[in-house]
Amino acid sequence: MFSMLDAASHMARRRIISSVYAKSNLISGPSSVTRSTNEIIGRDLVKHISEQARSGTVVGIVQLYARMMVDATSAFIFGMDGRSNYLHDETAWKLLAKSFGDRSQGVFLPQELPVLNNLAQRLGFKSGTGLDLVDAWCLDKCRDVEARAIAGQLEEGEASVWRSLDNAIARSKKDLDRDMRRRLVASEIMDHIVAAFDTSSIALNYSTYQLSRPCNRHIQDALREELRSLHGQDKDGQENSLPPLKSLDGLPLLSAILMETLRLHQPVPGPQPRVSHAGATLEGVGTLPSGVQVSANALCLHRNEDVFPNPNEWTPHRWMKEGAKDDERLKEMNRWFWAFGSGGRMCIGNHFAILHMKAALAAIYSRFATEIVDDSGIEQLE
């Protein structure tokens, strides 16, 4: 779906899974992520950090957040029994992470100069996205969940993303054999996995970095107080794994911290290209020829000083409403906010990402205090 240029094809694919990724479904619907967030974030992530904290070991968050997000996303797509378990398997993670990293060396030509890329391949030059291992991983996961579905081992609402894609492609691609249809499903799913590795983990990294800076310690303390108001105690005196997702989603400071991090440290800061259709117009330019690539840049949009005063400063409270007078200001800020894009091409997993990022920050800051040990190389690059 991500690479579909044709608007009709893109919208048709988007409709297949839009209801699955709806916030209402994620919080309390048949495909609720409550169990997966409690087990992967509230249990596994917290256990991992607790063990390192008790031993006095520095916690490296960059890969930790990526492992968590891939585990959580695969649980949503393939079901809890078909998910990855990278929070517990660092060796396997290193292999997959290398494949993710390798793709950055081979993206430009296929994406921006496909004709030249095809020519280079014909001449024998190595070219590709570097995602062969991830591609094979997605195919294996699809085979596994397919076998469990045939055996009647999937619970109601489980693996809804895979189910929706598999059923839709089976109906629309009847001329293709089972293996090719499986590859189409795996190709779509790989986009979701790559997004989990890249975007959500980047936003969590910078949220933790900003909260850990000495100048922002008061914000970390305020967040902890906000979170503690939700954490109940069970009869044994142990904290519950996570508060309800609906309650987390309504916390004003937690929401403001994420919005400000996504504004200042947008995971996709560079161009998000679109291709003009016949008769398209652009303000200040006029009518465009068909097939022209046009792009906007979230980094620039988020640094409009008229909308975001002191735009290079991390100021979560700019997103908090103090009174009715703030309504218009917040409305304008949201109009310029473009971390997930907008319109028909807006990120379909935005609610999934935000809920999981909120759950991760809640799990950590209701239990731990963080400080920076080494922030070398923290400067964000495109």
Determine the strand fraction and express it as a percent band: under 5%
How is the CATH topology named? Cytochrome p450
Strands across the major sheet, in which order?
1-4
Low-confidence stretches: 233-238
**Overall pLDDT, averaged?**
89
Number of helices: 16
Shape: globular
From the N-terminal CA to the C-terminal CA, the straight-line distance is 23 Å
- Beta strands, count: 4
- Summarize the helix and strand pattern as letters: HHHHHHHHHHHHHEEEEHHH
**Estimated helix fraction:** 55-70%
Please identify the structural class as seen in this structure: mainly alpha
CATH class: Mainly Alpha
CATH evolutionary superfamily? Cytochrome P450
- Determine Rg (CA atoms, Å): 22 Å
The number of distinct structural domains comes to: 1
So, CATH architecture? Answer: Orthogonal Bundle
- Oligomer classification: single chain
Q: Major sheet, described briefly?
A: 2 strands, antiparallel
Q: Please, could you describe this protein's structure?
A:
There is one protein chain. The radius of gyration is 22 Å and the shape is globular. The chain has helices spanning 7-18, 23-28, 34-54, 61-78, 90-102, 108-112, 114-122, 132-150, 160-172, 178-212, 217-228, 245-249, 252-264, 298-301, 327-336, 350-365; strands spanning 271-275, 281-282, 286-287, 293-297. The model is unreliable at 233-238 (pLDDT under 50). 55% of the residues lie in helices and 4% in strands. The two termini are 23 Å apart. The protein has one domain: Cytochrome P450 (Cytochrome p450), CATH 1.10.630.10. A two-stranded antiparallel ribbon has the order 1-4. The protein has a two-stranded antiparallel ribbon with strand order 2-3. A hairpin with a 3-residue loop joins β2 (281-282) and β3 (286-287). The chain is mainly alpha-helical and 382 residues long. Its cofactor is heme.
